[in-house]
Design goal:
With about 400 residues, the chain is of the alpha+beta class. The protein is about 15% helix and about 35% strand. Helix 4 runs parallel beside helix 5. The longest helix is centred in the N-terminal third of the chain and has 12 residues.
Length: about 400
């Protein structure tokens, strides 16, 4: 494996900066950038500069790279995998109710002998992340790790973009599958959420739409929790997701972040499904995000990782990491203290990807085929996944 990464602040004239990436001869290119980069057609132009590669990515609300976190930029990572087959898939999402079927359609496109990892990106509005992953797992099985996330739009919750084999789209869910006997996959997560307030029973829900808690409109209760933050919903909801609780009222490691609100219905749309009769408890971030925290979190989340890809240096063989800075759709000011404000408070989260890098399989009482079976569905921590080519099957990740 060889990797080269750059950050573009002027994506209108990127030819000189892209030269080292093109020279690498990549067969996979990951692109994460600000919303205008996709809506202007510049994403399609950039993809055209890599005719021999599968180009995939999505819009964000802050871009994570080896240089830290920025906004209004584009992070491009070129990857050359000499012993790995890459399979691409894409499907348009007709609406939130189409999420599971969309996952099944993608799964059928990606099914291939020796499939070792799937990377998927979906739109960040009007989607059910749990159903999408369940649909993919229904076709691919629960032994294939599925990672990826939902696109962002700077916290606006209006229109997001993905980039796949058919170009940039505000409707498509895109994915790539990596297959081959030489592929080695590792994964981990690190989060920092703390619950507060009493547990509340889900007395009415439909899929990932929460209507009532303890017999009251869910939105009314949620606004009481948020206090002054309620005026900035739905964006402020990313700072205060729900923890799902088991029958014994203990946390089961599932977090549900808010995607949208309906004032008339008094409901909350969550990033993943919840259970009728189950229990939820509000969460809050227990410490500020920072560039240093993101880097440290990546190391903690790496768990058993023992090799380093050199931070994306040109031609460096080794490990490909996909970092995600946390707090829901992670948004935070950079080292210079920049950041947009929610009310009188600085936004602490930046959107890159919205669910964690966990394999689609159950652990204990954690349901199978959940996109967020440890800390998050909207990245409750900084997560990473790496792919490494090796010669022996018994080599560790």
């Amino acid at each position: 494996m060889k990797i080269h990464q750059i950050t573009l602040t002027d994506w209108k004239s990127p030819d000189r900066q892209l030269q080292p990436l093109v020279a690498l001869g990549p067969n996979l290119v990951l692109v994460f950038g600000a919303t205008p980069f996709f809506s202007s057609g510049d994403a399609n132009a950039l993809a055209g500069r890599f005719p021999g590669a599968v180009v995939i990515g999505c819009s964000t609300a802050g871009e994570v790279s080896t240089q830290g976190v920025q906004e209004g930029s584009v992070v491009v990572t070129a990857v050359r995998l000499d012993a790995t087959r890459i399979v691409a898939g894409t499907t348009d999402l007709a609406g939130m109710g189409d999420s599971r079927a969309a996952g099944e359609r993608l799964g059928r496109q990606l099914a291939a002998p020796g499939l070792g990892l799937v990377l998927v990106f979906g739109q960040g509005v009007e989607i059910n992340g749990s159903a999408l992953i369940q649909g993919m797992a229904e076709v691919l099985g629960t032994s294939v790790p599925i990672t990826g996330g939902l696109a962002g739009d700077d916290g606006a919750f209006v229109k997001t973009w993905t980039l796949g084999v058919n170009g940039a789209s505000d409707r498509a869910v895109v994915a790539v599958g990596l297959a081959g006997e030489g592929l080695r996959i590792g994964h981990g997560s690190y989060g920092g959420w703390a619950t507060f307030g009493p547990a509340r029973k889900v007395t009415r829900c439909e899929g990932n739409v929460l209507y009532e808690l303890d017999g009251e409109p869910a939105l009314d209760i949620y606004k009481r929790y948020l206090g002054e933050y309620a005026r900035d919903l739905p964006a402020s909801g990313l700072l205060f997701p729900f923890a799902m609780l088991g029958d014994d009222m203990s946390a089961i490691g599932l977090i549900r972040t808010i995607l949208g609100i309906d004032e008339q219905a008094g409901s909350l749309t969550l990033a993943g499904e919840i259970l009728q009769g189950g229990y939820l408890q509000a969460d809050a971030r227990v410490h500020r995000c920072s560039d240093r925290w993101s880097r440290d979190g990546g190391q903690r989340g790496g768990g058993d990782d023992r090799t380093d890809g050199g931070g994306g240096e040109a031609g460096h063989p080794g490990v490909l990491r996909r970092p995600q800075a946390g707090d829901g759709r992670p948004r935070r000011g950079g080292s210079g203290g920049r950041g947009r404000r929610i009310g009188n408070h600085r936004r602490l989260y930046r959107v890159l990807l919205l669910w964690g890098n966990k394999p689609v399989c159950g652990r204990g009482n954690v349901p199978v085929a959940q996109p967020d079976d440890d800390h998050h569905d909207h990245c409750g921590g900084l997560n990473r996944v790496h792919a490494r080519q090796g010669r022996r099957k018994d080599q560790g990740p």
